[in-house]
Design a protein that fits this description.
heterodimer; B: alpha/beta; 6 helices
Amino acid sequence: MSAREFWRQAFEIMRKDLKIEGRAGEVLAITVPFGAVALLLLPLAIGTEKSMLSRIGPGMFFAVTLLFGMLVAFRQSATEEPAQRELLTLLGIDPAATFVGRVIASSLLLLGFELVLTPLDIVLYNPDPVRGWGWLIVILVLVAFGLSLVGTLAGGVTAGLRTKSTLAPLIVAPLAVPLLIASSQVIEALRLDRSILNWIVLLIAMNLALTVAGVLTARPLEETSR
Amino acid sequence: MTTPLIDLADVGVRFGRLTVLHGVNLHVEPGEGVGIIGPNGSGKSTLLRVLATLLKPTTGTGTVLGVPLLNEPTPTVRRKIALLGHHPALYGELTLKENLEFVARLSGISNSAVASSLQMVGLGGAMDRRADHSSHGMQRRVEFARVLMTTPSLLLLDEAHAGLDKTATSLVEGTVRQVKARGGSVVLVSHEPDRMLPLVERTYELVRGTVVEGTA
C-alpha cells in the first residue's frame, strides 16, 4: 500500500470518528462538564487556601485530563460493533491506518477537552505565573496525543472481549502515569525556573514508542479480535 | 475449466472445546448461487465468516477467490467479498447516505454512485435520515445498496430476507441476480428454505456443524 493510500484511509477514519462524535456530543456534552465538576469539587473539599490550590492546580488539571480523557480516548474502540469491525476488514483498510486515524481524532477531541478546562483550572486554582507559558501548549498537545495513543492501543487489545469496558481503563491507567508525572513536572520545573528538557524528552519518547507499538501491533490485534 | 470461487475440503472450526463445524466440503463456481439450510445453531453463520476470510478454520484446507484459507488475503481480494450478517454494519450517528459515502470513499467509488444505489433500494427519500433513527428494514436495504454499489465477486448473505417486508423480496432477488450475472457467486444461508430456493442452483444442508446433504 502506498503512503498516500495509507493516509487517505487514516483521514477517512478520522473524519468518520469526528463526525460521529459531533453528532453524539459525548465529549462536549458529558465529559467536559464532568471534568469541570471534578476540578470544582477539590477546592470545595480541601478549602480555599490560595497557596495550596496554586501548588496543586497543574497536577489536578492533568489528573482530571487523564481520568476523563481515558473515556474520550477509547470511546470509538469501545463502542464499535463486530459488524463494523468486519466491514472495515472487508473494505481492505490497513489496521495501522485505522489506528492512526483514531489516534488523530481522539487527540483533537482531547485537545479540545484540555483547552476548555485550562481557563477553568486557572480561575479555580490561580496557579503561580511561570516563565515560558508557551510550553503549556506543547505539553497539552503531547499529553493529548499520548493519552490517545494509550487509549486506542487499549481499545485494540480489548476489542472483541466482553470485558473490554472494564479491562481497557485498567490498561490505560498505568500506561498514562508517566504522562501525568512528566506533564506535571514540566509545570513545576517552569515554576521553579529549572530545565524542562528531561520531561519533554520523556513525553516525546513515550509518544514515539506508543506510536511504533500501535502501528506494529494493529494488524495482529485486528486479526485476533475477529 | 473455470477456477472455483470457493473450494473447501474437510473444513472444521473449533472454539476451545466446542466444535462448530467439521468435515465441511463446499464447491462454488463463478456465477453460481448456493444455498445452505440449517436450523439455528448449526454453524451457518460461522461458515459464512470462514468464507468471508474473517475466520480461519481450525482444520481442513481450501481456497476462497483463489486464496488459501489459512493465508491472510490482500485488501484487493477482501474488497471483492461482501458479507451481510445478522446485524447491519452501519454507524448509527451517521445518515444512511453518509454511511455509504464512507464506504464509497474507501473503495474508490464516486459519491454519485451513493445516491443512485440508495434510489435503487427505495431509500431515495430517506438518505439523510440517521441510521439509528431508521428501521431495521431500512438498515438492511442500505446494506443491499452497498452491495449494488461495490459490485462484489462473492456475496455472502446471512438470512437475507430477515427484517425485510415482502415487497423487498425483489430487492434480494435483483441483487443476487446482478452479482451472478457479472460472474460472481452468491452463498445464502437460512433456516427458511422457501424464499431462498428460487435464488440458488444448489442447496446444502448443514446439521450440527457438518454438510449432510447436497442437491443438484
